[in-house]
Amino acid sequence: SQLEALMSSHIETFPDFPEPGVLFRDITPLLRDPEAFRAIIGHWGAVLPKEIDLVVGVEARGFVLGAPLALSLGAGFVPARKAGKLPGSPRSISYDLEYGSAEIEIGVDSLPRGTRIVVVDDLLATGGTAAATIELVREFDVELLGVSFLLELEGLGGRDRLPAGVPVTALSTVP
Ligand code: 5GP
Q1: CB of 124 closer than 6 A to ligand 1?
Q2: With left for phi above 0 and alpha for psi between -120 and 50, is residue 142 left, alpha or beta?
Q3: Would you call 61 a catalytic residue per the annotation?
Q4: Catalytic residue flag (residue 135)
Q5: Which of 19, 32, 35, 98 is an active site residue?
């Protein structure tokens, strides 16, 4: 398909980055080709629910993709940021990484009651980041319509780490 061709020609794979054994998928070639970028956002928006109020994007590539996606859907954008970046008293959640831990935050007033949201990020790998983000947005009284990725690395089983009942979609997958 046109979509698969776009993805395979605009995502570059780097072995052993950022550490030995990791096969890193670099999406920046997609971002710097305006026609490919526009086409991908169009395809992605078409597979998401229509009634989204807010797109929640995970720092940092979830910002770059989530903001144009939100505009294309007529929705607003909310950043889920790494700890220490948001003013006020954001809600936060810590989660385990392979080595150490990480913490993400969302502004306490950023997700009003009853808002219909989707969480987006560039890539689903082990699922740790998305699982934590889902747990965090659930602290708000919102309607989580789903979580969606540009690319899902199926072999890492990330989907199975996400809570049942939350629709998970990916624009494309690699085994
Ligand atoms: P997970 O928590 O699912 O293991 O990893 C997903 C998170 O790490 C996402 O926020 C994603 O941006 C980043 N990530 C992990 N592996 C890759 C990769 O190969 N390419 C890119 N672009 N991001 C990755």
Answers
A1: yes
A2: beta
A3: yes
A4: no
A5: 98
Residue from 122, 147, 149 to probe ligand 1 pocket by mutation (most atoms less than 8 Å from CB): 122
**At 101, which amino acid appears?**
S
ipTM exceeding 0.85, yes/no: yes
pLDDT in tens, 47-83: 999 999 999 999 999 999 999 999 999 999 999 999 9
Cα 34 to Cα 40: distance, rounded to the nearest angstrom: 10
With a 6 Å cutoff on the Cβ, whether 169 touches ligand 1 is no
Q: Whose Cα sits closest to atom 13 in ligand 1?
A: 123
Strand partners, 121: 149
Domains of the chain: 2-174 (3.40.50.2020)
Q: Which residue puts its alpha carbon closest to atom 4 of ligand 1?
A: 126
DSSP letter for each residue of 48-95? S-TT-SEEEEETTHHHHHHHHHHHHHT-EEEEEEETT-SSS--EEEEE
**Quick one: how far is CA 63 from the chain centroid?**
8
Q: Which residue has the tokens 């889920």?
A: 80
